[in-house]
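To whoever is on call:

I kicked off a structure prediction for a single chain this morning and the downstream step that reads the tokens threw a length-mismatch warning. I double-checked the sequence; it's 253 residues and nothing unusual in it as far as I can see. Pasting both halves so you can look.
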Amino acid sequence: GAMMDNRFATALVIACVLSLISTIYMAASIGTDFWYEYHTLSPAENISEAGRSIWEEFVSKDADEKTYTDALFRCNGTVGLWRRCITVPKNSHWYSPPETDMTTNCISFSLSDQFVEKYIEPGNHNSGTDLNRTYLWRLQFLLPFVSIGLMCFGALIGLCACACRSLYPAIATGVLHFLAGLCTLGLVGCYVAGIELLHRKLPLPEDVRGEFGWSFCLACVSAPLQFMAAALFIWAARTNRKEFTLLKAYRVA
């Protein structure tokens, strides 16, 4: 029996570590602003011309999707799930030479921004609602929280299991981690689809390169970790239960 118990203990410890790492990765990716990055190859002179107005439009309450996306294109923008950032010259004299210090300024998406309708032509509210993009955006905002919630709930059940010295709840923990993995995959899929659709409507200018950033990669790594943890939890619980039953049969005999 002791040999077997070690195997389960090891599987459960590894599952817990994977679960913890994936939770940290998810939290970090939700909290950082590098889901998508724009690299503007000639930003400095663009900015000095119209910099002040770009910045004011970017931060204004009524900045629509087209306005802030244009600013992201022109000023090395980065976008997170919660915030958007652009890099602009530090000093207020916009006409000074371009090689001044640059500073990155961010503005948060408000809750209403997260749920606002996206239009078929970004920035033109007469063009009708683009349902696909509207729901993709809402999902990419909600799914990471569902994912983290499922894992935390799984962890609670796991703690109770330890307290009761029972492995049955490990199956529930495994299932919750599996669902969390599906949510994370869904989040990544929604984000990629949303960016694709946006760039079809607002193509990148010639001198701008766009790429997914490291915050996005953290979410991508998080999903397989959740699935691996799920598999280990379920495997440990099921195999242990089988051997426990065999052991009982053997004792009875």
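Update from on-call: the warning came from a stale cache, not from the record. Cleared it. Sanity check on the structure: The chain has a mean pLDDT of 86.
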